Every structure is written in C-alpha cells, then in structure tokens.
Amino acid sequence: MQVTLKLPDEIVEGLGRDAEIPRRVLEALILQRYLAEEISLGRLAELLGLNRWEAEAFLDRHNARLPYTRDMLEEDRRNLAEVLGRR
Q1: Measured between alpha carbons, how far apart are the two ends of the chain, in Å?
Q2: What is the pLDDT of residues 61-71, one digit of tens each?
Q3: Which residues fall within 8 angstroms of residue 43, CB to CB, at 6 or more apart?
C-alpha cells in the first residue's frame, strides 16, 4: 500500500534527504509498534528487512530496548531448540 503524508517542514528537515524520508517514516512507525509491544523483535526485523543482529543494532541506535521478560526468555529458548533440532 502506498500512503501520502503531509508533514510540517520542521519535521521533514529532520528526516534527511528526500530519498531517505519514506524509510525513516517506516522505521518510526515500526519502532512505535515495537515499543507499544504490539510486535516482536522478530517481526520488527522482518518488516524492516533486517536480520536479528541488525534489528538489535537498530534498537540500540534508537535507545529502544524493552525489558527482557520471562516470556521473551521462553521464546528464545524455543527458537534456539528449534534451530538446534531439539524439542
């Protein structure tokens, strides 16, 4: 889907070159959904076309880490077991 936005000049000036603006807006929207805990780190990575490590670096650059919860630990353990071929 393509969306057209009208943004104030002062906001646009902070977004960089014209070619960077769509990506920056997309990143901001996806980051907001992540911080609202509406999407996971894995989904953030997928939506931004990043691998896990790039997604982690993206969050670090934006100082946007969520607390590491027990549920996250369990998800990581399940994913690791799947990768290693264990159940």
Answers
A1: 39
A2: 999 988 888 88
A3: 34
Higher pLDDT, 53 or 72: 53
Q: Are 75 and 66 in contact (CB under 8 A)?
A: no
Which tokens in the block code for residue 51? 């691998």
CB 41 within 8 A of CB 75: no
Q: Please write the tens of the pLDDT for every residue from 36-64.
A: 999 989 999 999 999 999 999 999 999 99
Concatenated DSSP letters of 16-70: -SGGGHHHHHHHHHHHHHHHTTSS-HHHHHHHHT--HHHHHHHHHHTT-PPP--H
Cβ count within 10 A of residue 17? 7
